[in-house]
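Thread: Newbie trying to understand structure tokens

Hi all, I'm a second-year student working on a class project, and my supervisor (Dr. K.) asked me to get a predicted structure for one chain before our next meeting. I've only ever worked with sequences, so writing a 3D structure as a token string is new to me. If someone could post the tokens and maybe explain what I'm looking at, I'd be very grateful. Here's the chain:
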Amino acid sequence: MTTASKITLVRVVFIPLLMVFMYLSGGCANIWMWLALAVFILASITDYIDGHIARTRNQVTDFGKFLDPLADKLLVIAAMCMFCQWGMMPAWAFMLVLTREFAVTGLRLVAVGKGKVIAAGWSGKVKTASTMVGLCVWMAFPQFEILSWVIVGVIIVTTIYSGIEYFIQNWKCLWD
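---
Reply by user tm_fold:
Sure, no problem. This is what the structure looks like when written as tokens:
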């Protein structure tokens, strides 16, 4: 197993820890939420590190290509799930994010079956970055309802935009 894949696995191990700390916080800005925020930030940083190591040390593997995006999605979904449980994120918004993730993953699977690779687009990277930053801010200030709605709004807009862009740019994969 490569160093990059080991780092990705660390991110996966952080996910239950994140959820436990968030659960113990009860959705309040307390020591548990700060610990959850620290875990989320560390896990997010590992995403950059494992990708950098994989590219610079020629450690790109099929296992890494599978696990890295899965770990990213699980990390973000875990945090959103907790906010949804507390009634801070509407279930419809959470479902929209899940739908986009499943749809884009399905599109990529169809493309791979046809020998094509759909690389992460600019809008997808913006969506991921803004979602991760938004979730960090939300964990730091969970008590501000207006801020929560702004974060949900940014997540929804970037999710919809990037999902539409993926399908517009790659719709031929579905019909060829």
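A couple of things are worth pointing out once you decode it. The two ends are 36 Å apart (CA to CA). The first helix runs from residue 3 to 25. Feel free to ask follow-ups in this thread.
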